[in-house]
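note to self: dont lose this again. the chain is below, predicted strucutre after it. 144 aa total, dont forget to put it in the shared folder this time
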Amino acid sequence: MIRELLPQDLESLLKLYTHLHANPIPDPSPSLDALWQEIMTDPRHHIIGAWENGHLAASCVCIVVPNLTHGQRPYALIENVVTDPAYRRRGLATACLDAACGIAHAADCYKVMLLTGSKQESTLRFYEKAGFNRQDKTAFIRWL
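---
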C-alpha cells in the first residue's frame, strides 16, 4: 500500500531512516514533536510511504516549491529516498517516486528534481528507470 504518512507514523519513519546513511533514531523531545507537527501540517511537504504487512518498507519526501519563473508554476524536490534492505527489488521505492511525481503533477509543477549522493551505477540506473535523467542538470551542494 502506498500512502502519505500520518502523524502516528513517525516512529516507523525514524526506524526506516536508520537505513539512510546509518541515520540514528533521535531521542524523543519537544523539539522533535514540534518539527514533526510542522512537517505534518505543511501542505507542500509530502512524505510518501510503501507499506507491506504493516511495515514501512520504503519512503521518499516530495516538497512542492512555489516559483516565479516558468509561468509561475512550482517545481518539486524529492529527497530521502530509502528502502529497508529486506524489502528491496520489489518496486516499492519506484511506487513511492511515482506517487511523488503524481503529487507534483497535481500541483502543476513543471519539473521534479532529485539528487542522490550515490555513485553506484546500479542506483543511478534505478533512478533513470524510474524516469529521471542525469544529463539535463549539474548539481552542486554546499554543506552548512
